[in-house]
């Protein structure tokens, strides 16, 4: 699923472009939610197959090393760019109450709480909870150095639960029912389709992580038995191509979204184990997948810089800006991976221990 993860990251890049890229591929919202599925699947897999993660502290340390070094590098560069170029960023901190300053500083440093910034606002000089972050005297999310990292706040909440929940299938189903009930309640209250409740509220989004975990626990063994039969050995490759085509051409499918969205999720959950197995046989797929996280983390900084440069140079070629943002995001992601990710990966490998590859069983990638 390496190429698939990178395509999803690129879908988010398109969604954040300021001239209507939201409907390219599957759009930003669906891309983020499919990442939740993938995260649940991968974390369930590594917890089940790596004995070193029987110690939750080792699991947490490995997650920290996976997420924070690249995030902090991009956050530092974003802060440097804001100090040198974007004075409005600093002005926000001078105008909001101290409690809002504390929330933003803490979440920028530790990522935890960035998703809750999307449920916060300023009203008459006070930090308040709000059902619509746009109805605020100041837009607090503009004080995030890496604004898209709010999704990492959601993922970190899942990681905090994972070592204790994913080993107990009964607990998985109990939490899944509770999470789906919360999602139903939000829809019943008219909030389920509204930002930020439609994909930023962790108690509702937990269901997606858990469904990804169940895909690993129940469907992976099923598909392994199927592809052990000679006529079906090409299924991982074919399923990967099918899911990639669905993701890339989703916006062209002439079906009502109320049907198309659930169909996308169903197909994705069904075939996700096959895309995972395909990655074990393709080094190219693994290498491309390693770029997905740094692309996701760096792309808004690249878009910000590219837009500022194009305005100063009076360049308004949307296609040219899109290509420049995509190319620069890929190059920056490669550099982040090579100079930070690869070095940190050596330390992560020592923590989780050496694992030998067996038939039809992938080696741990960077998600491990």
Automatic annotation (TrEMBL):
InterPro entries per record: Acyl_transf_3_dom, Acyltransferase_3
Span of domain Acyltransferase: 3-337
A Pfam family assignment: Acyl_transf_3
Keyword Phosphoprotein: no
One GO-annotated biological process of the protein: polysaccharide biosynthetic process
Residue ranges of the TM segments: 6-27, 34-53, 65-84, 138-159, 171-186, 206-223, 235-253, 259-278, 290-306, 318-336
GO MF term (any one): acyltransferase activity, transferring groups other than amino-acyl groups
GO cellular component, one term: membrane
Coiled-coil region list: none
Keyword list, A-Z: Acyltransferase, Membrane, Transferase, Transmembrane, Transmembrane helix
Alphabetical list of PANTHER family matching this protein: ACETYLTRANSFERASE (PTHR23028), ACYL_TRANSF_3 DOMAIN-CONTAINING PROTEIN (PTHR23028:SF53)
Protein name: Acyltransferase
Species assigned in the record: Sulfuricella denitrificans (strain DSM 22764 / NBRC 105220 / skB26)
């Amino acid at each position: 699923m390496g190429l698939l993860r990178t395509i999803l990251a690129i879908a988010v890049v398109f969604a954040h472009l300021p001239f209507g890229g939201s409907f390219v591929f599957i759009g930003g919202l669906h891309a983020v939610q499919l990442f939740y599925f993938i995260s649940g699947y991968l974390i369930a897999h590594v917890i089940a197959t790596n004995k070193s993660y029987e110690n939750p502290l080792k699991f947490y340390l490995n997650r920290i090393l996976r997420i924070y070094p690249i995030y902090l590098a991009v956050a530092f560069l974003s802060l440097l760019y804001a100090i040198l170029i974007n004075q409005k960023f600093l002005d926000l901190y001078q105008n909001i109450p101290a409690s809002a300053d504390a929330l933003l500083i803490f979440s920028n440093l530790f990522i935890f709480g960035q998703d809750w910034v999307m449920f916060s606002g300023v009203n008459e000089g006070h930090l308040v909870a709000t059902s619509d972050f746009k109805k605020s005297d100041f837009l607090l999310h503009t004080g995030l150095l890496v604004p898209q990292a709010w999704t990492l706040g959601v993922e970190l909440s899942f990681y905090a639960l994972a070592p204790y929940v994913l080993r107990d299938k009964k607990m998985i189903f109990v939490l899944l029912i509770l999470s789906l009930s919360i999602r139903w309640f939000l829809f019943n209250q008219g909030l389920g389709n509204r930002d930020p409740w439609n994909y930023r509220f962790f108690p509702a989004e937990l269901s997606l992580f858990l469904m990804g975990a169940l895909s690993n626990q129940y469907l992976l063994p099923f598909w392994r038995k199927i592809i052990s039969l000679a006529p079906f050995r090409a299924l991982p490759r074919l399923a990967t191509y099918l899911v990639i085509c669905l993701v890339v051409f989703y916006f062209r499918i002439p079906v009502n979204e109320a049907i198309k969205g659930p169909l996308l999720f169903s197909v994705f959950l069904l075939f996700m184990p096959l895309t995972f197995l395909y990655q074990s046989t393709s080094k190219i797929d693994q290498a491309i997948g390693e770029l997905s996280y740094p692309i996701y983390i760096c792309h808004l900084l690249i878009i910000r810089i590219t837009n500022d440069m194009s305005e100063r140079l009076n360049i308004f070629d949307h296609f040219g800006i899109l290509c420049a943002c995509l190319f620069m995001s890929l190059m920056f992601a490669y550099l982040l991976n090579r100079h930070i990710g690869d070095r940190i990966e050596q330390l992560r490998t020592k923590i989780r221990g050496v694992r030998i590859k067996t038939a039809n069983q992938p080696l741990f990638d960077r998600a491990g």
